[in-house]
Amino acid sequence: MRPLAITGVGLVSPLGIGFSDFRDALNRYDVLGDKLFVRESGVLAPDKLPDPLAAEVSSFDPTPFLGSKGLRNHDRLTLFLLVAAKQALQDAGLKENGEHKVYSPSRIGLCSATAYGSLDAINELVTVAELEDPRFVNPNRFPNTVINSAAGYVSIWEDLRAPNVTVVDGNCGSLDVLLSAETHLSHGRADAFVVGGGEVLSDPLYLGFRKLGILAEGNRTFRPGTPEGHGMRIGEGAGYFCVEREEDAKKRDADRYGLVIGYGNAFEPPESDAVIVHASQKSIERAIQAALLDAGVSASTIDGVVGSLNGVPMFDRAELAALSALLGDGVPVIAPKSLYGETFGSGGALAMACALSWLSGKSVGPMVRGTMRDKPRTLLVVAVGFYGNVSATVITA
Amino acid sequence: MTRVFVTGMGVVSSLGLGREAFWKGIVEGRSGFSSIEGFDTATLGRSIAGEVKGFHARDFLTHTERKRMGRCSAFSLAAARMAVEDAGIKPEHLAGDRTSVIIGTTMGEADVIAELEDAWIRRGADAVNIARIPLYGSTLLPIHLARAFGARGLVQTLPAACAAGNYAIAFAADLIRAGRADVVITGASELLQKHQFQGFVRLGAVAPERCQPFDKNRKGIIIGEGSGVLVLESEAHAVRRGATALAEIGGSGLACDAHHITRPHPEGEGSLTAMREAIARSGITPDQVDFINAHGTGTHANDKIEAYVVKELFGDRQIPVSSLKSMIGHCMGAASALEAVACVMTVQTGVYPPTMSYETPDPECALNVVSNTAVTGKADVVLNNSLAFGGYDAVVAFAKPGVLPPPPAASAAA
Question: Of the candidates B178, B257, B391, which has its C-beta nearest A183's C-beta?
């Protein structure tokens, strides 16, 4: 791929709002442990759900970033994305005091991922329509049930008029957006993209995974990527990055957090035709190999891996086996989801943020294997979906 | 960059199954509208839709496939099987990592989540059927297709609302041009679902009985459902296997209004950009476009703005324009995919489909509307317009193979 320079970061996560808070929290990962998973949720309804436990963005207040006007009908995902986008654009210097400074609005696009983006809005709509009356459905909130609604609002708030793309690819979407952006940039459809993704906690999301039986027991320590892994915990968050062509970023002398040099994806079906959710070591290996090939680097150049490890044994085993087969066991692998859980459509974006932090030498998060290297230059980020879909990226400093 | 061809198409629609039945209904100006049978509309004041009534999943899907997917996925898999058969493409040409699946939608498996939600809010968590939970998630739409055809490349859903079909087709073509795939199975799927219908009624967007695009007395949309799926191939791949190219995918234009979540930009800024880009990226000028398959929803705002944009771009030239939504309704995410199928058929046959129920010209929509009867004409290049929720604008050009100049190199495409 043509390298993409990451010139701005915006984050809303259980680790904090903004990249600085995120990195500081990563620095304290050993102290944090699994303390970010709470039962006293401000989002989930304990009276409706069995044993709710999740990592949430506590006391989230968008008003310092967005002001207080025009927020009433936005759902939580939209607010997350609006805050992350504003941070990323300002951080990149593409906007200043709300004004575009580098590119015209028609040359900046958005590629935004989510997996279950409108679930809480759908829940709200169905509850009103079924328990009250369809005529009471709030027309101002109905748009939130449409999956691309949140990304549409970002374009409106930030005046981004180049292609606006919402991507759904389960846990892989917020790495796939890098391919979308690179494709659109290569075809000259824009000069910069805001890329990333978001996911929010909601009662139906939690209930669905709880009933499927893949959530970790709340009274046991949560250790993704280790033999003690016994299930997943879930979280929420949003991460956006401003990406530009490498030469464009250089030309304007922009500071860059990293360079995306390779992307790969793969899909493998399950052995049984009846199965939907499954783990595929082969698919993970293929996606990583494709990313390395795309980057034009060999496996030996990878200094570390930000894993997708979420605590579900079959997925963690497949991922670690794939990493062993391709990179050996000495390469350090971190499992940041042990801090904030599986965040689905934003998982890749938060993992990218961990990788950028690692490249800056600031913090790495919980390591599950390997030996840490000084001054890592090239990192691999992996996102493993629930259906045999996998994406991977290679980034350098 | 390589040329990209459409080599097969499949359709699930309220006018019939398969591209021939669909096209026959379109050319005859038949209505796909009927009273909704899928859910109760008694209190809503609206009861008509373009509901697909002749579809039986068992005719296209195995028992196991039917158990593991909802109606939206079933639509797209059925349409995809028709498209693959239409393309005459052998399984060995589809199997492997050079085949991708890109599918658009607005709400995906909306019936599955409604069923789960309904059980939960009425009867509690224990009543939620565990076996149905994994069926939810728009991620699954392309996954089901990839599994059916042995595709091992990128699987991705593009939920671009009413422009989803065009978004998927445009990105699929770009992937092939970028050398990241040889074949992409692409298109979009959408189903008519109770809560979605209720929401659009509450928005005041739904017409009582008819959809009348560009008519002075138009009263809004009629909601439809269905799926349109196309097989796209690189020129080299199509030539290698001796495929018949139905049409070439020309340039595409993607833009965002960044104005309002449901209303188009008052001067159609994004729509104009998207149309201009689709034409420029095809390597042609507006005078070489023969026909426009309009978004034409039948709402006051859309049709007025779309007409304004067409006039801006084509000036005094009375380019023929038509909207299928007068017959099949607004199929949301699937709309521009079904309309893409019709565009290819127009390129194939030289027939411009009619806009039905067009009775009273609107001075605000002073277009050359193909009214109530199909007509024939030159169809070397046609445009497929879409203006969507979220301010998404997407336009794709379809052309007779060999008409367009060779596409430029990627680096020169800007």
Answer: B178
The pLDDT tens digits for B332-356 are: 999 999 999 999 999 999 999 999 9
Domains B4-240 and B250-401 share a fold: yes
Check residue A276 and give its pLDDT. 96
Is a pLDDT exceeding 50 seen at residue B412? no
Residues 6+ positions from B257 with CB-CB distance below 8 Å: A155, A161, B264, B265, B269, B270, B271, B391, B392, B393
Does A273 lie at the interface with B, CB-CB under 8 angstroms? yes
Task: Please report residues of B whose CB lies closer than 8 A to that of A133.
Answer: 43
Q: How many domains does chain A have?
A: 2
| B258, closest residue in chain A (CA to CA) | A156
* Closest CA in chain B for residue A49: B125
- Do both A389 and A350 map to the same domain? yes
Chain B positions touching A115 (Cβ under 8 A) are 137, 139
Burial class for A212, CB neighbours closer than 10 Å (0-12, 13-18, 19+): middle
Token duo for residue B318: 């009375």
CA-to-CA distance for B108 and B237, rounded, in angstroms? 31
- How far apart CA A255 and CA B126 sit, in angstroms, is 53
Same domain for A184 and A286, yes or no, is no
Q: Tens of pLDDT along A358-382?
A: 999 877 889 999 988 888 999 999 9
Q: Calculate ∠ Cα B183-B177-B283, nearest 5°.
A: 125
Q: Which residues contact A131 (CB under 8 A, 6 or more apart)?
A: B121, B122
Domain B4-240: which CATH number of 3.10.580.10, 3.60.21.10, 3.30.460.80, 3.40.47.10: 3.40.47.10
Note if B259 is an active site residue. Answer: no
CB B126 within 8 A of CB B116: no
pLDDT at B410 over 70: no
Q: From chain B, pick out residues whose CB is under 8 angstroms from the CB of A165.
A: 158, 160, 167, 171, 254
- Which of A208, A239, A257 marks a domain boundary? A257
Encoded tokens for B413: 């495409």
Shortest CA gap A243–chain B (Å) = 17
Q: What does the pLDDT average to over B23-28?
A: 98
Taking the Cβ of residue A265 and every Cβ of chain B, the question of whether any pair is shorter than 8 Å is answered with: yes
Distance CA A177, CA A189 (A): 15
* Domain co-membership, A217 together with A352: no
Among A257, A281, A302, which residue terminates a domain?
A257
Nearest chain A residue to B135 by CA distance is: A276
Complex ipTM, two decimals? 0.96
B162 is catalytic: yes
Does the distance separating the beta carbons of A131 and B121 come in below 8 Å?
Answer: yes
Which band of pLDDT confidence, cut at 50, 70 and 90, is reported for residue A207?
very high
- Looking at A131-145, A174-188, B210-224, which range is the least confident one? A131-145
Name chain B contacts of A122, Cβ cutoff 8 Å. Answer: 110, 113-114, 117, 195
CATH domain B250-401 topology: Peroxisomal Thiolase; Chain A, domain 1 (3.40.47)
Instruction: Give domain limits for chain B.
Output: 4-240, 250-401
Q: Contact B167/A165, CB-based, under 8 Å?
A: yes
Does residue A73 surpass a pLDDT of 60? yes
Interface contact flag, B175 A183, Cβ < 8 Å? yes
- pTM of the full structure: 0.97
The C-alpha angle A115, B103, B38, rounded to 5 degrees, equals 85
Instruction: Tell me what pLDDT residue B328 has.
Output: 98
A188 touching B (Cβ < 8 Å) = yes
Range of the domain at A233: 4-257
A335/A324 same-domain check: yes
Q: Which pLDDT does position A48 carry in this prediction?
A: 82
Q: Are residues A125 and A234 in the same domain?
A: yes
Does B93 participate in catalysis according to the annotation? no
pLDDT given at position A30: 84
- Cβ of residue A119 closer than 8 Å to a chain B Cβ: yes
Q: What CATH number did the domain enclosing A320 receive?
A: 3.40.47.10
